[in-house]
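Predict structure. Input: Glycosyltransferase RgtA/B/C/D-like domain-containing protein, 573 residues.
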Amino acid sequence: MTSTVVKQDDADAAAEPGPPASRWRERLTDTNIARLVELLALVPVVAMIMEVARAGKLQWLDYWYVLIRITNPDGSFRPLGVFTPQNEHPLIIPSLLYWLDAKLADGDNRVLGYLVIVVAGATVLLLRAVLPRSLPPLARAGLVVAASALVFSLQGMHMFVRSMSGAAWLTANLIVVASLLFAAKGKWWPAWVAGVLASASYGTAFALWPALALLAILRRERWTYRVTPLGIGVVIIGIWYALKPNDWVGGTPANDIGSLLFTFLTILGKMWTATVPGFAVVAGALTLVVYTILATNRTAQQPALRFWWALACYGVLACGMTGMARMDFGAEFGLESRYSSIAVIAAIPLLVITSVVIYRGVRRNAQKIAAMAVGIGVIGFTLGVPTATDLRNKIREHPLEAVAIRAGYGDTLGPVLPREDELEPDLRALSHYPFNDSFSLGCGGPELGSTIDVGDAEPLPAPGTRAPFEPVGVVNSIDDRGEAHLITGWATGGAHREADQVSCVLVVDGNGKVVGGGVSGQPRGDVTATYWELSPNVGFKLIGPVTDETRIVVVYDSGAMRWLPPEVTDTGD
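Output follows.
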């Protein structure tokens, strides 16, 4: 009878509403709330889509060298070309993506960039699928937001706006994650096949094979499954070594343990600074310390975390491989934007494993873990602002290469482009940008080869000591590159808001023929520091042949034209 009364009392107590704090906590851990939080993961994706949309159509560096290897003179595909490594890296799958972009989208950098965003998004979704179910929905949602913020971080914007790079690095990472997912479920053959595909995408994927072996050990698989990944990795590296060109890649040889550690730790900690190598070294070292501490924790050893330990192994080893290959390039080279892709892979497992340990140690921490994860993601995303600013400035100047290619001055720019006689025939055969109708100098009329009348145009005077209210212009340098010259300077219609703004700048020969062009509206902090009231984007950079009869013609929005002589302006400095 007594027992019955106690049970009834307990039931009555359970039926009573809990304290306000309890109800608030339950709402925060509700699945619907978690789904709303997870929508925040779309914010960095949208931000990167906007960056790619502004990135411009022209491709970058390695893309050109790969394209001429995989293209026959008639524009058809050359399959054997995909097997030649680029900068020591196998690029078989990326080469195919480059080819499809060239054939189907005129080689548009932005189209390939959108594909890279899809690849990165698929990586986040795969990581989301394997988050430990021991964590409540809200905590998992916070981790998804963090993963998205880090994968799409401004630190790694290089991967998206220079899509040829992301098509290699991020495709390899996606296939690596898929391979480890197969292995975590005991599906070894699909895991090994995926591993081969990853290794065909980029050299960082070579680090996958020890990670697969570690996963087999953690799963207590037979020795066959533990050794086979290492054997496959050795074979793949042997094939790569046989195919690798005997080219020198690097700067002054370092060949010391200190330089190796410095570069490795800088890359590992790259996510947490954009400009300070020493801070990246500290962050990289702390990452290894925390991993070591977690490895001794019993909660961190649970089966649900085996995948994350294997992924961490891959990320750390990939950073180590890159550090070993690139330590000759200098102390700050490890801060290059493209290296953030492997730093992210090393950072996300640390965040997941730490979250599981914290939640197991102190219950009712779902909202705190979610807040921590989102906060770390926000930090990782926004620390890349200096990197993004630098990349945006380079993007603004990049169309100069399109003018050089189209006008036949590509050799004047050096190794950023292949030899002109190798590149131009392939691009013409493919109707590849800039050899199609989508190319323009952006003047709203005059193009390369056009003839314009500059007879009535007035010369642009040099500025005085105060902000000019009338049109002025300056030529700062004329660099003779052989068949063409690189010309830098600045021009403005005046310091007031109603001033006629510069539309474009051209190089015109003595007959009025447009023989060169480039980019205008470039930021010139040195100019605006002298003339406070000027627009910050007054600079121009041109390419074209210079003779005594050459005119540098500034075209304004109104259609008015003024000119500068082909000589460095004497400003009286």
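The longest strand covers residues 514-523.
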